[in-house]
Every structure is written in C-alpha cells, then in structure tokens.
C-alpha cells in the first residue's frame, strides 16, 4: 500500500499518517485512533479497523492476531438525538 | 537498569504532560512514567474546553485566566496542530429566575476584568438563531477557547521530548522510594528502578492510591461524566454553549432549575461544543460510581433530552459515539497543586475535575516554578494539600 492510500474513508486518514502515529508511540488500534482519528467517523472503524490492524502488525513486526479492535462504545449504530431522547427498554 | 533524573512525573495525561513540558523548558532533567499509553485515561475521555466562564468569581477565575494566557503561548510554541479555536463561549439562561442570578454573575465577572457580555431578548436569537425560542438570555465570555485534548497531550509530550525529557509509557509504578530521612529518592517500576529527588504525582483519579502508600491522604474521588459525539453536521450554534444551570449543578445547587428528578440525580446539564472537524460534542453528567467507566444508557437518554430542550433542530442528527471519563473531584472544586509537607520531595498535581485541560498550562507552570524555586505565577495557597486537614480542624 502506498503511503497516500486512504485507509479510513470517513475521516480521510492515510497509510502514511497511520505509520507516523505508530512511530509516535501508538501500539494498538485505540492508540492509532486517538492520534489520527481513523475509526472516529460515521462508521466507527467498521471499514478501516482490519486494515489498521494489518499496518500495526507490519510496522511492529507482530502477528495480526495479537491486535484487538478498539473499545466498542454505544450506540451500536448511529441513532438520532430524537430517538435516543425518547428512550428504550433494551 | 537504573536511571537518574531531577524529577520523575507519574501520569501521562494532560497534567503530567504539561508539568513535564514546563520543567524541561526550565532545563530540568525529567522522566515521565505512565502505566498505559500517554493520553489514555481521563484526558482521552473528556471535552477540550479552556474556559473561565464557568469559574467562581475570584481566585478560581484568576487561575483559569492565567491558564488561558499560557495556552495562547503554547499554541504558538508547540509544533503541532492542536485544533485550537478561540470562539468564546456562552451560558444560556432559561427563565427570569435564572436571569437574576446570571446578571449578578455577569456583573461580578465583568468587574474582575473578563471580556463578558450579556444579551437578552431579540439579541439572543440574532446571535444564536437555532436556540430554543423560550430562552431569555446569554452570558458570553469572549476569551474562552477549545482544542483537541488528545492532540494537546501529544503536543506537550513531543515538546518535552524535544527539550530532553524521557517519556516511559507502558511503565507502571510499583513503589515510591524514600531515603532514611523519609524524603523521596525515586520510584520502582515494572521496567526499571529510577532515581530522582523530586516525584510529582499527576495521576488524576488514580493519585490517592499512589499517595496512600506514603501515608498521604488525598481526598480525590472519581466522578463519572458522559459525552455524546454527533456526526458531522451543520452546527446548531457557532461556539461553546452551556446551560446556566450547568454552573448551578457544578456547584451543587439543584434549586435553580426545574427539571425531571433524574436530571438532577445524574447531574445532567447541557453542554455543547463544536469541534474543528465539523462534529459536535454534547455533555454533561456527574455521578459517583467508583471506577466504572461504562456508559449508562439511561444517562445518555437524559443528556439527549436535555440537549433537545435547548437545540430542538438537532432531533434528526445522529449520535455516532458515546464515552465516559472519570473526573478527579475534590470537595472544594479546586485542584491540588502542592508540595507535601510530610514527605520532602513529593508533589501532587491532581484533582482538576472537569477543568484539567483548561488548567493544565497553569498547573504545569506552577509545579515547574515550585521545583525550580522561582516565585509562582499566582498564589498557590488555595491549592495546597493541607487545606483539607486545616479545614477539618476548624470544623472540630
């Protein structure tokens, strides 16, 4: 992958920016997310997370299986303020 | 492995990073020790406000004002995009009952030299047209600003490193070492033994546990606060907006607004913050539930409902993420920025509750001045650790 390739399409984060975050000290998906915004957009990392894990594995010389996805935070899918405010019993 | 520094700072959040930055600017040899990644605790689960509008008139306000001025210099000096924006901030006044308190507040703060304005009637909606049309006033502070808190920590760390500081992430302190006279002389960690004559505890809500090992009682409690993140969308307001009732809940006054009881029991008050990326954040809540950082769905509902009360037009905008952080609460709402009389060489910088980002610059500066032995930028008496025990003695 070229350094200019976009990994996180929601926040337009490139391979090069993710590699830089790893050089700055990121050692996991959450560390990359906090430094670059990859995974902070509308899809919350569903599209880019696996690619970020592959770049981490490659840059840090570890197997991909050692990396886990970022902490899952509610809501599971985007919900409008209107619906959230009405409340639910689930 | 043994390594030696002038100062060891424990905690890689915004407070520890700011202290490390300012100390290394003074030429001190500093080692920062953090058990996880830098910016992984409360500094990664907050909003990015640099506010004076929500401070008590007097010392609290002067401290925040000094910090704002230091931040403006940091923005120039740190080679990093902090996503800093000085748009000012406003407090929304809901009714005439609040307006009385709000006008007094405004007058006192304006007299203390703050760039404050009071808007009412039609002026409110010319200023922020999308606010609910039954609100009656706005108190504005023009100097308030915001930034990306995590970027701020990374920037301070990079600046400190550039000035020679050693940063040790993923290194947990297992003990603080003392010499035969009882003074601190270093720390034991999971990676190395480190030596230094000064140790600064800047571990936020985790500070009391570190201090307890030295027989020092630090009255900080974790207070959980939730935040909702909205998708990129047209902004319902052009700058930071908080309900005036936020001030009332912050200082424990539940009389000043009429809301459903749960809003008060969870300390829910509307706080709106636009970000540089076109998203916006909605806060806030306050509850004592120990170290549990999980989001409480009921609290998120209450916060969404409160946000809609002030911004009815956001009904169809999506919430894409929520999170909760543990704010380091102290009984008098002021942080502890202090040496510790009973343990020579020990310093504490913690307990900023929701003001850690905003007060990080002045906290870093004050600790650096105390350690280097310069006069401090503002009196540190109200921030001293022994104020709590002195207070107890008075009550007895």
Quick structural overview:
The complex is a heterodimer of chains A (90) and B (396). By secondary structure, chain A is mainly alpha-helical.
Describe this protein's structure:
The complex is a heterodimer of chains A (90) and B (396). Helix content of chain A is 39%, strand content 8%. Chain A starts with 5 loop residues before the first strand and ends with a helix. The model of chain A has no long low-confidence stretch (mean pLDDT 92). Chain A has 4 helices and 3 strands; from the N terminus they run ββαααβα. In chain A, helix 1 crosses helix 2 and helix 1 crosses helix 3. Chain A has one domain: Arc Repressor Mutant, subunit A (Orthogonal Bundle). Chain B folds into 2 domains: 179 residues, FAD/NAD(P)-binding domain (3-Layer(bba) Sandwich), CATH 3.50.50; 163 residues, D-Amino Acid Oxidase, Chain A, domain 2 (2-Layer Sandwich), CATH 3.30.9. Helices cover 32% and strands 24% of the residues of chain B. Chain B has an 8-stranded mixed beta sheet with strand order 6-7-5-15-16-17-14-18, sandwiched between helices. A 6-stranded mixed beta sheet of chain B has the order 9-3-2-13-20-19. In chain B, strands 1-12-11-10 form a 4-stranded mixed beta sheet, with no helix packed on it. In chain B, a hairpin with a 3-residue loop joins strand 11 and strand 12. The termini of chain B are far apart. The model of chain B has no long low-confidence stretch (mean pLDDT 94). Chains A and B meet through helix 2, strand 3 and helix 4 of A and helix 5, strand 14, helix 9 and strand 18 of B. Strand 3 of chain A pairs antiparallel with strand 18 of chain B.
């Amino acid at each position: 992958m070229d350094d200019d390739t976009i990994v996180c399409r929601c926040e337009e984060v490139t391979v090069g920016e993710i590699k830089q975050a790893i050089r700055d000290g990121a050692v996991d998906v959450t560390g990359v997310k906090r430094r670059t915004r990859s995974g902070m957009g509308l899809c919350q990392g569903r599209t880019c997370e696996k690619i970020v894990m592959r770049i981490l594995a490659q840059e840090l010389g570890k197997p991909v299986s050692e990396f886990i996805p970022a902490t899952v935070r509610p809501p599971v899918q985007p919900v409008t303020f209107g619906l959230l405010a009405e409340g639910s019993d689930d | 492995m043994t390594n030696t520094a002038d100062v060891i700072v424990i905690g890689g959040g915004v407070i520890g990073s700011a202290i490390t930055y300012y100390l290394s600017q003074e030429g001190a040899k500093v080692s920062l020790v953090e058990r996880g990644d830098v910016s992984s605790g409360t500094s990664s689960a907050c909003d990015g406000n640099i506010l004076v509008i929500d401070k008590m008139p007097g010392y609290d306000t002067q401290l925040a004002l000094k910090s704002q001025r230091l931040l403006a210099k940091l923005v120039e000096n740190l080679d990093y995009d902090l996503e800093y924006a000085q748009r000012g901030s406003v407090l929304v006044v809901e009714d005439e009952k609040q307006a009385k308190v709000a006008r007094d507040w405004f007058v006192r703060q304006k007299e203390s030299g703050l760039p404050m304005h009071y808007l009412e009637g039609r002026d409110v909606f010319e200023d922020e047209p999308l606010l609910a049309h039954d609100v009656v006033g706005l108190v504005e502070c023009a100097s308030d600003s915001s930034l990306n808190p995590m970027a701020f920590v990374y920037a301070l760390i990079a600046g400190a490193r550039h000035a020679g500081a050693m940063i040790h992430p993923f290194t947990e302190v297992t003990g603080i070492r003392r010499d035969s006279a009882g003074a601190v002389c270093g720390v034991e960690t999971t990676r190395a033994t480190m030596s230094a004559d000064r140790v600064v505890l800047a571990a936020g809500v985790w500070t009391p546990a570190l201090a307890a090992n030295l027989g020092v009682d630090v009255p900080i409690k974790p207070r959980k606060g939730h935040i909702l993140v909205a998708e990129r969308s047209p902004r319902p307001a052009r700058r930071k907006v908080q309900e005036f009732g936020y001030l009332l809940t912050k200082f424990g006054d539940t009389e000043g607004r009429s809301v459903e009881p749960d809003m008060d029991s969870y300390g829910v008050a509307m706080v709106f913050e636009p970000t540089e990326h076109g998203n916006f954040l909605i806060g806030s809540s306050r509850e004592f539930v120990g170290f549990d950082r999980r989001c409480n769905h009921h609290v998120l509902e209450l916060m969404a409902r409160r946000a809609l009360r002030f911004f009815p037009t956001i009904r169809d905008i999506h919430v894409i993420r929520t999170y909760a952080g543990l704010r380091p609460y102290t009984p008098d709402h002021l942080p502890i920025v202090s040496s510790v009389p009973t343990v020579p060489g020990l310093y504490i910088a913690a307990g900023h509750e929701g003001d850690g980002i905003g007060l990080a610059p002045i906290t870093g500066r004050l600790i650096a001045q105390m350690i280097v032995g310069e006069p401090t930028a503002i009196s540190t008496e109200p921030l001293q650790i022994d104020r709590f025990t002195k207070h107890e003695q008075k009550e007895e």
